[in-house]
């Protein structure tokens, strides 16, 4: 199989063995494929949820002196976050800064998601605030991640405040976001507040889904 000239194969595999075979062929090439080509391979393996293999491949790449970019390092950060090893994710961030590579929104969003995944919502909010202060523009996915994290950890009033902030900043919450808050309100016995928010959702022209109805019924 030719490593160069058929880039589509970098992100399409039937199994992990195929990925390892391609990786081994790539590292034996001279000159070696670009980091972009390695990144396609690694991203495909992440989608297959074989995180330990991604770490192993990164280690091999390190030994071979393959230069990284923000995209490849973001993949490694995400891998550690998926493995609930967020401290190692921050170590990669430190390495990124040491190499003079500027973190992007994806870098910080991934770490925020890592905190939320471990129910460390206070750390997630602090990183979010720091992200905004430094001039990064969080996207709707980041806002929804924080909001969902607040709801799952029972931070009802902080969730409502965050929801209002989203609206004020022009990040119109979708039905999934509203459903999360309604569910949180119901679970904390705040049915009137939940019904009020439900009415607001309908007034905005957002069509309620089965999830939000189930929250109110139960």
Structure description:
It contains twelve helices and no strands. With 218 residues, the chain is mostly helical. It has a domain of 80 residues: Serine Threonine Protein Phosphatase 5, Tetratricopeptide repeat. Helix 6 packs antiparallel against helix 7, helix 6 runs parallel beside helix 8 and helix 7 runs antiparallel to helix 8. The chain is elongated. InterPro entries: PPR_rpt (IPR002885), TPR-like_helical_dom_sf (IPR011990). It comes from Gossypium raimondii. Belongs to the PPR family. P subfamily.
Mean pLDDT: 88
> What is the SS-derived class?
mainly alpha
Helix fraction by DSSP (H/I, runs of at least 4): 55-70%
Largest beta sheet, briefly?
A: none
Query: Helical segment tally?
Result: 12
Low-confidence stretches: 1-8
Total beta strand runs: 0
- The CATH topology of the domain at 139-218 turns out to be Serine Threonine Protein Phosphatase 5, Tetratricopeptide repeat
Whole-number radius of gyration? Answer: 21 Å
Shape: elongated
Q: According to CATH, what is the class of the domain at 139-218?
A: Mainly Alpha
SSE run: HHHHHHHHHHHH
Instruction: Tell me the name of the CATH homologous superfamily of the domain at 139-218.
Output: Tetratricopeptide repeat domain
Strand fraction equals under 5%
CATH architecture of the domain at 139-218: Alpha Horseshoe
Separation of the first and last Cα atoms: 57 Å
Q: Could you outline the blueprint of secondary structure elements for this entry?
A:
Layout: H1 16-28, H2 35-47, H3 51-63, H4 70-82, H5 86-98, H6 105-117, H7 121-133, H8 140-152, H9 156-168, H10 175-187, H11 191-203, H12 210-217
